[in-house]
Amino acid sequence: MLAVVAFAGRTAACTNLIVGKKASVDGSVMCTYNCDGFGFAGSLYHSPAGRHTPGEPVAIRGWGPVHEGQYVEQVEYTLGVVGFMNERQLTIVESTFDGRLELQNRDGLLDYFSLIRLALQRTSSAREAIRCMAELVERYGYNSSGESFSICDPDEAWVMEMVGKGPGRKGAVWVALRIPDDCISAHANLSRIRTFPMEKSGKRKVEGGKSISSKHLDRIMRPEVECVYAADVIAFAREKGFFSGRDEEFSFRDAYCPIDFENVRYADARVWSFFNHHRGDMAQYLPYINGEFDKCDALPLWVKPDKPLSLRNLQADMRDHFEGTPLDMTVDMTAGPWGMPVRPLPMHVRTSDGTDLFRERPIATQQSGFTMTCQMRRWLPDDVGGVTWFNCDDADMVAYVPLYCCLTQVPDPFRPENNLRAEFSFQSAFWMNNWVANMVYPRYSMMIGDLRRAQRELEDYYFADQDSVLAAIKDLTPGERHQYLNRKSIAYADRMMQRWDRLARYLIVKYNDQVVKREDEQGNFLRWGHDTPGYSQPFLDAIPAATGDRYRLKEVIERRER
To answer: How many structural domains is the chain composed of?
Structure first.
């Protein structure tokens, strides 16, 4: 039986999808990030490359708690970073799983966001980043709750999971696994790593390579190593009473983030839906999503898709609301008369008769601050090979804008000063996208077609233009390439803002006052005439059961009775 339990009041949560290079149509490694959480306006972070005096203090500027007057030591050279990708195409994104909150050490210096930024500035590959992150938390302490990281470069994709050791304990326990090149993976606010290959005396062989402990962390640079973990990841769980079995039975998830129906339905349902898009046998895992853990108690960490994914496939995945599945958010009465796929908070509500209810939590959601799909391509120079397709707000409601990883100037619509959470601006990508989205949400099925046309128009143009970009940079020097790609990224962002301004003005005219103005074949509004679409038939059919005779035409009732 499906057991319903109360949802905690979660408001901050993220989704990451990952594609290995042999699971993509063109050989690129790809990953995504919906950064979700009410109360902040998305923008694009930028850190320029630079040389420094080694050891000089660097103030910590993280995503979570701010530690005034606390610093880490600088390194000699830092790489340029745009968003969550650096100039060598290394990309690191995250999702929070909380886990055992008693293990959060608020005295630790580094939260997950500052850890990501430092690793992007200091390393050139996924393997280097994992080593760097492990060393940083060991030296400076870690203050976030449980975290999953997607760590990807043009050759490899890794998942690293980390949780602190509690008040007064510096460092963290963690595990990192390489995703097979021909597979896809995902994480979304629930620990995903269970058992993993462990180093044994005699250098035990494991499928896909050797595993190592953190005391030999430098060996992660050897290509055969595909699993690495903190030396005390099991011993610490034993110490805290989280695990008591044999080492080979140890599950990171079960020790540090025990599952219940709440966190599975809230989090792993998103992973299941992504896998379900690309593999035909995922219905077997529905008992797990429904909380029937006696039948199934986990999703695989990765699956091999039925066919390779394109970047556009991945962008469509980021717009998912479980459409076409038993969890579809557009078809029941909670979707209202126009199939609205978003729901208001809280996650858990109670009816007047004491019945506890919950709402689904899809990949695409109205509280996204920003969304990105990242592409890393080894066969191209780094400056053009690494592209972050970015925008602010809900992935379902925006067009992805390509931004090259060599950017030295953030396009104006994505700059933090133009995206203030408490001040609307026509120069803000976040607010322009919100303006459009919040017109469309209430009458979703009626209006989404107009948004989709604008979305496809922009993204078709951006994808078609990539061949001309590659042709244009062919004979340019690196400096000239950077200037060209910088200008191109800015032009792409400007084009998006202009198109969305036209879309917003079009929608308010076409749909004002709950009717739909008629248009001629060229798309011009007619001087007179409108349509009154009213409610959908399923919604109309549900009204009598909810309202009784209140809205019945009395004359019709009387005639029928006679």
So the answer is: 2
